[in-house]
Amino acid sequence: MLIFLRAVLMPIHFFVASMINLLICVFRPFHRNNTALCCRVYSTGKTLLGAKVSIINAPAEDSSGVIYVVNHQDSLDVCLLGGAMPRNTVLLGKKDLLFIPIFGLVYWLAGNILIDRGNRSKARETMAGTARRIKEKNCSVWIFPEGTRSRGKGLLPFKTGAFHLAIESGLPIVPICMSSTHRNIHPGHWRSGEAIIEFLEPLPSTGLVAADARAFADKVQQQMTDHIAMLDKRIAG
Asked: Is 176 helix (H, G, I), strand (E, B) or coil?
């Protein structure tokens, strides 16, 4: 019964949160902190879900000049990860997000970056533009390097876009790991479970060239895989 009730209420919460965020973005379009604020509005859904969320080593001040790479699991990410979004940070996501009613408009007005993965030439142009934007505005970018939701399959192979961006801009990669939701969040329970989100130490990209992007991606993927397993053990313990 509880899981059915949440299945009804969570989409309603998402719609209401999207409307609130749309108002925020209409009144201050493309503001540097729109994304962080909108993510916090979405994150209020964790209370409805009955989940405990712990965030470790989050930046104390506005973020600048960092490329965050984060594991992407399922639709619960929007309310579990939202509270971890640093200020002065934008998301880089697929162009298809524009076609989600209301949310797509919020995503665009918040000042986030859309990439057409089906067109490699345009994707490269977007990445080059993102590198310039990061330097000019002294902001950071948040990327899901798997390119899609893993849906309980563990950390999927990383695409190299985030790592090419880091090498081109000379900025560090900061991995962010969230514990496995399919193991630790159970919507059928009143207290559905716990999620731990941890910011790892920055990994410099200085001295690397474009040919190193694949090896860099694989190294970060392995580090995140190991750390997510450690977070899962911490919750189990």
From this structure: strand
